[in-house]
């Protein structure tokens, strides 16, 4: 499944402990996507994952800790960045990946649920911020390479450029019912490249 | 209070009915900012607003309808657009207004609460989308005038340009703990202008 965060539960190394974690996180993600944090119940997650309740309570303790671990896992399992040789190509690949993730019914609902939970829970907010930091770290070398190739001015805030690609897609997801189509993704990438080339993201602008 | 949505309860015309509505919406906004939709209780809103419970139940019926009316009121009470004579000036004024709104503790918490509620309630989502449509309608003439002045290419999607200004500010609010400072607002305006001038927002791009 070619989304920004591959599904918990997909093929991965590890023994029984890793399999239990994968099954629990898969069940937690399903529950979150269906009903949000308010309906995330550890006993229900254990039942869905076919794992003992005691294991789930002992290892995760609370819904909030379960969401934090789910986000950590999503970051670990995320697809690596794409390298196309041009900034526009790389950022378009990033925008399309984010778009596919948010437009996927399960993943889109999951991100909405976690963003909503983060607005009223500091631990969830910290875990969510960490997820985005990891994803920005993974993609910012695309922008760094563009600076080195001379495509972008020296002093460009490479992380802010990566964030600019995602922003309109998340904004559309959360504040409108306009479709998250590929044209929106491509426009997000093109807008970011135009702004970055114009020097908008150089640090001296701050 | 110079925020995108002036406070419900500020000076406005009308008799007793309008005063009751203003008091109830002010109390509802306070409750939402403090605890989110899950803690919005009509009886508690009536108590805070010093209005009879029956009035509140009869007129608003449910927390969801109360939030929808609050959003409608926020749109009605919003500040008009600024006219500076240049696209960058106008969009910078818009970005700074959005930033001030989101950085204001009460208003920022209120927007977070409503966005979170909209992720799991269709009526709230519809009311929220309507709020943004009204705000985009109010500001898009700035972009239309820039097209007419020859600052931007013909065929520019004027509404999408306005939305591009807000996107990075909301994205920062919801996915990071980076401060919503004026530099971020100015950069949002500058990035949008650079992209719009480059033709990224022309409809043929879709």
Q: What's the topology here?
A:
The structure is a homodimer of 206-residue chains.
Chain A: H1 16-35, H2 42-49, H3 53-60, H4 63-76, H5 87-103, H6 105-118, H7 122-148, H8 158-175, H9 182-197
Helix pairs in contact in A: 1-2, 1-4, 1-6, 2-3, 4-7, 5-7, 5-8, 5-9, 6-7, 7-8, 8-9
Count of helical stretches of chain A? 9
* Proportion in helices of chain A: 55-70%
Whole-number mean pLDDT of chain A: 92
Low-confidence stretches of chain A: none
CATH architecture call of the largest domain in chain A: Orthogonal Bundle
Largest β-sheet summary of chain A: none
- The total strand number of chain A stands at 0
General shape of chain A: elongated
End-to-end separation of chain A in angstroms reads 39 Å
Order of helices and strands of chain A: HHHHHHHHH
Task: Give a structural overview.
The structure is a homodimer of 206-residue chains. Chain A has 206 residues and is mainly α. The first copy, chain A, folds into two domains: 15-74, Homeodomain-like (Arc Repressor Mutant, subunit A, Orthogonal Bundle); 80-197, Orthogonal Bundle (Tetracycline Repressor, domain 2). Chain A has nine helices and no strands. Chain A has helices at residues 16-35, 42-49, 53-60, 63-76, 87-103, 105-118, 122-148, 158-175, 182-197. The N and C termini of chain A lie far apart (39 Å). The A-B interface holds A 35-36, 38, 112-113, 115-120, 125, 128-129, 132-133, 160, 163-164, 166-168, 170-172, 174-177, 183, 186-187, 190-192, 194-195, 197-198, 200-201, 205-206 and B 35-36, 38, 112-113, 115-120, 125, 128-129, 132-133, 160, 163-164, 166-168, 170-172, 174-177, 183, 186-187, 190-192, 194-195, 197-198, 200-201, 205-206.
